Amino acid sequence: MQPAKQDDAMSALSGGSQDLFSQQKARGFEAFMQKVTVVLGVIFFVLALALTYLSSH
After folding, report:
1. What is the SS3 assignment for 50?
2. Are 34 and 26 spatial neighbours (Cβ–Cβ below 8 Å)?
3. Assuming Cys at both sites, which of 8, 30, 33, 54 could form a disulfide with 26, CB separation 3.0 to 4.6 Å?
4. Total number of domains constituting the chain
């Protein structure tokens, strides 16, 4: 691998993978799965807060 042009501490820790994948945009099934994951994550978070609230009362 060639060294990145920007050698900062974060790049050293992450291996510079952010530069590799930052230019690619998800398409098709990958974009769909990203949206489903975000929606399910939000639903999980809201349900967790609601159950916590309900269990304390």
Report:
1. helix
2. yes
3. 30
4. 1
